[in-house]
Amino acid sequence: MPLRNSFEVESLKSVWVVVMRVFFQDVQVSTRNRVELVDISRDVEEVMKKSGISEGLCVVHATHSTVAIIVNEHEVGLMSDIVKKVQQEFPKGAKWLHDRVDDNADAHLASSFLGATRVLPVRNAGLVRGTWQNIFLLELDGPRTRRVTVEVMGE
User: Fold this and answer.
1) Residues of the chain with pLDDT under 70
2) What is the pLDDT of residues 25-48, one digit of tens each?
3) Strand spans (E) along 3-144
4) Is residue 130 part of a domain?
């Protein structure tokens, strides 16, 4: 088929074929308190290493509507501050409408605002994180056993 314009010629000159691999693994996390932070950095790093992927993205996703995934410093005072702030912003027993059904609206609301998924870059077969950045599961309705899906994709 003949090309119709110069744009099509330029497009054909810059075609790249990249084979992307995808690796999944679930990580189980057991929590002990109703609201708590659990550092899952090592678990995510282990999945990253198993993937064999050196450049790409790592998706960390909690498959629950009453947890969040956050990235921050693993410092005891800060971790307590985060839990305290979440409880202040989304207090249990604040007459949330969902509490008429399940008595955990505060956990659903906090998860909705904080998010159950984080995406981190992968470079040179490692996660790109700052010096003080750890990956946490923020339990909002525990204690429970939670599942976190880690998906690494790239080349």
Assistant:
1) 1-17
2) 999 999 999 999 999 999 999 999
3) 21-30, 36-39, 56-62, 67-72, 117-123, 126-127, 134-139
4) yes
Both tokens of 8, joined, read 């099509």
CATH code where residue 149 lies: 2.60.120.460
Answer whether residue 13 is part of any domain: no
Q: How many CA atoms lie within 13 A of 149 on its CB side?
A: 10
Q: Could you give the number of structural domains in the chain?
A: 1
Burial class of residue 142, CB neighbours in 10 A (0-12, 13-18, 19+)? buried
The whole domain housing 74 covers 21-154
Q: How far is CA 137 from CA 15, 60, 67, 91, 154, in A?
A: 40, 10, 7, 19, 24
Assigned domain for 91 exists: yes
What does the block give as tokens for 41?
């950095």
